[in-house]
Amino acid sequence: MGEHTERLSYTLMGITELATRERHGGKMQPAFALGVVNMGEYATVEIPITGITCASCVSRNERALRTTPGVRAADVNIATERATVTYDPAQVTVADLVERIKSAGYGVSTATATLPVSGMTCASCVARVERAIDRLPGVTSTSVNLATEQAHVEYVPGVASRETMIAAVRRAGYDVPATAALAPDQGDASFEGLLDMQAAARASAYARLRRRVLVGAVLSLIVLLGSMHELVPLVPGWLHNGWLLWALATPVQFWVGWQFYRGAWAAARHGTTTMDTLVAMGSSAAYVYSALGVLAPSLFTHPGIR
């Protein structure tokens, strides 16, 4: 049979792409893995299935998918070993569809990705990152480790990608270093190089944090001594000046503590709070109260009382 080419247009993650399919020996082989196509309230996804050998396998997978709540239509192609499913994302996820296929006795071709995530400080951060990635079409499971600052993701290739995962993490208010663009499946040497770069980035961040802590500790000690001069008589008189103490406290509040403000703002943009919110609000209240005592002392005095 002669070769011929037909062109199909698909919408992949909101971007129109042209795919070329070539017919060889009666089999249709897609030139690339298809993703999720939005169709109003419904979405269509193609899931690669392993273990299909006959028409009975096709009907068994179709029956398992079609009886899933939220699935509008499901068709399995034995030649391409793919299931095309139209479903309601509000009722069912791609992870649910994958589980249905597995429960029918077949497998789904999945891949794994490891993403370094920075900016996490507590269990709430871990849950937020996992939730952001899990919501992506094509992601079957997500596990985030706070100690190693890494997210381990299992996903369906062609439906989800590292790029969409990185974008989801950043939308959630956290960051993924630029070195994450190097995928682990590019070879052991490349992956080891990625780990080395991650370690170097972590060491650099630690050095910056240590420098800020040291500067903040020195300035805070001076402010403490100047504020408690009644208890420490050896402190020189010029250190009692409120304007000087205010000037020394300001970099501690806004330079040393900038990461707390950044984290609190990222959480606020997503309608939530974290430990950064608590630290930023508490320290800001103390700073503003003290600054007003210097700028407008009359607000804190009563007639006859100083």
Structure description:
- The protein has 306 residues and is α+β, with helices and mostly antiparallel strands.
- The chain has three domains: 5-108, Alpha-Beta Plaits (2-Layer Sandwich), CATH 3.30.70.100; 111-190, Alpha-Beta Plaits (2-Layer Sandwich); 198-300, no CATH class.
- The chain is 43% helix and 22% strand.
- The protein has eight helices and eleven strands.
- The strands form three sheets. Strands 4, 5, 6, 7 and 8 form a five-stranded antiparallel beta sheet that branches.
- A hairpin with a 2-residue loop joins strand 1 (5-12) and strand 2 (15-24).
- Helix 5 packs antiparallel against helix 6 and helix 6 (242-256) packs antiparallel against helix 8 (275-295).
- The longest helix is centred in the last third of the chain and has 40 residues, at 188-227.
- The N and C termini lie far apart (101 Å).
- Overall 3D geometry? elongated
Helix content: 40-55%
**Percentage of β-strand residues:** 15-25%
Kindly provide the radius of gyration, computed on alpha-carbon positions and rounded to a whole number of angstroms. 29 Å
CATH architecture of the largest domain: 2-Layer Sandwich
What's the CATH C level of the largest domain?
Answer: Alpha Beta
CATH topology of the largest domain: Alpha-Beta Plaits
Instruction: For the record, give the distance between the C-alpha atoms at the N and C termini, rounded to a whole number.
Output: 101 Å
Largest sheet: 5 strands, antiparallel
Q: Give the helix/strand class.
A: alpha+beta
Spans of at least 5 consecutive residues whose pLDDT stays below 50 are 1-35, 185-191
Mean pLDDT over the full residue set:
77
Order of helices and strands: EEEEEHEEHEEHEEHHHHH
Number of strands: 11
